[in-house]
Amino acid sequence: MSTDAFVPGAVVVVRDEEWLVTQTEETADGSALSVQGLSDLVRGTTATFFPTIDTVTALDPREATVRADDSASYVDAVAGAWAPQDAGMLVAVGSVLSSVVSDFQIRSTAKSHIRATQVERLAMPDVLDPLMPRLLLRSLRLNCLTEAYADLWAEVWDPAFAEDDWLLDPGYPDAPRLGDVGPSWTPEVPLRRDIDRRNALVEIDALMATMLGITAEELSTIYRTQFAVLHGYDQNVYIFDANGRIVPTSILQVWRRKGDKLAEEERTATHPAGTVYTYDLPFAPRDREADFQTAMSTLDAA
Questions:
Q1: What is the Cα–Cα distance from 129 to 137, expressed in whole angstroms?
Q2: 32's torsion region: left (phi>0), alpha (psi -120 to 50) or beta?
Q3: Each residue of 127-144: pLDDT tens digit?
Q4: pLDDT at 74
Q5: Which of 81, 88, 246, 256 is most buried by a 10 A CB count?
Q6: How large is the greatest C-alpha to C-alpha distance in the chain, in angstroms?
Q7: With contact defined as beta carbons under 8 Å apart, do 69 and 55 qualify?
Q8: What's the chain's Rg over C-alpha atoms?
Q9: Which of 4, 23, 24, 21 is nearest to 13 (CA)?
C-alpha cells in the first residue's frame, strides 16, 4: 500500500474498526501510526499500530456513505457546515478554520464545545480580498490528496494559482513551485513532503493575519503564548532533514547523542510501506515565529 494512504487525516481500518490517522512516525520498533477511534467500539480511544504487524487498510473517501449516528454513547448533536453551490466559499471557510488565528479565537471563548454560534463569530476575511486565491491554493494543495477531490479542485481552480509561489524559502533542493499546477487534478497537486505541508500551514496563518490586519509580532505572540504544545513540538519533535522530511524518533535519539557524526546506516529507516529512506544532514527544527515574519514581509513587499 502506498504511504500516501497513511497521511494524517486518512481513515483506516484496523482489526475491523475504523480509525483516524493523527500522526505517522518512525520508532525504534518500526513505523508507527498514531490513531483515534471512529467506529462505535473504539470511539474516543487512541492507539498506535504498526503496519508491519497489523493489517492496515485505507478507506477510499469516494466509497463513503453518510448515516445517522444512533450510538447510545454519543450524547451531543452532530454539527456541520456547507456552502451550497459555492465550492470556493467552502474551501475559504475551511482555510479560515485551519488557521491559528481562528483556533485562538475559539480558545478565547472558554467553551467546551465548538458550535455554530462560535464559528459564526470568527473573523472572516473579505472573499474578494486579492490574497484570497493564495489562501485557497494552499488549502487545496493540503487537502486534495486523491483523485476523489478532482471535481472540487476543478471547480475552485483560479488562473491566479499558476502565478503564485512560496512566501518562504524552499525547504529543500528541487522543491515544487507552489503555482506549478493546472486546472485538472493530478497526483502532483497534493503537497506530500513534510516541510511543504508545514510551510503551507504557516503561510495560511500569515495570509490570514495579513488579511485581518494582524501584525507578525501579534501573530507570534498568539502562537508563543497560546500554543505551548505546538511550540514544544516545533522545537523537539518536528526536526527536518536536508530534504524536508521529518526525522524519525529512532534516528533523532542517536543524533542527539552523537550529533552530526552519524554513519549512513544510523540515518536510515524504513517507512510503513516498506520504503527505505536515508535522512540527510543537517537536521534542524524550523523557527515558526521567524517564518511568520518572513512570510508577512514578503506579502508587504509584493
A1: 14
A2: beta
A3: 889 999 999 999 999 999
A4: 47
A5: 246
A6: 57
A7: no
A8: 20
A9: 21
pLDDT band at 274 (very low <50, low <70, confident <90, very high): confident
What average pLDDT does this structure show over 77-104? Answer: 79
- Pair 77, 112: CB distance under 8 Å: no
What is the percentage of the chain residues whose pLDDT exceeds 70? 86
Residues in the chain, total: 302
Cα–Cα distance for residue pair 53/31, rounded to 1 Å? 10
Nearest alpha-carbon partner for 135 in 218, 206, 215, 212: 206
Q: Which of 56-65, 71-80, 160-169, 187-196 has the lowest mean pLDDT?
A: 71-80
CA 250 to chain centre: 23
- What value, to the nearest 5°, has the Cα angle with vertex 83 and ends 82 and 84? 110
CA torsion 221→222→226→230, rounded to 10°?
Answer: -90
Instruction: Return all residues near 4 (Cβ < 8 A) that are at least 6 apart.
Output: 145, 146, 190, 192
**214's grid cell:** 494582524
The grid coordinates of residue 27 equal: 520508532
Residue 125: Cβ-neighbour burial (10 angstroms; 0-12, 13-18, 19+): buried
Please say whether the beta carbons of 212 and 101 come within 8 A: yes
Cell of 91: 474551501
Please indicate whether residue 241 or residue 5 has the higher confidence score (pLDDT). Answer: 241
In this structure, the number of other CB atoms found within 10 A of the CB of residue 58 comes to 17
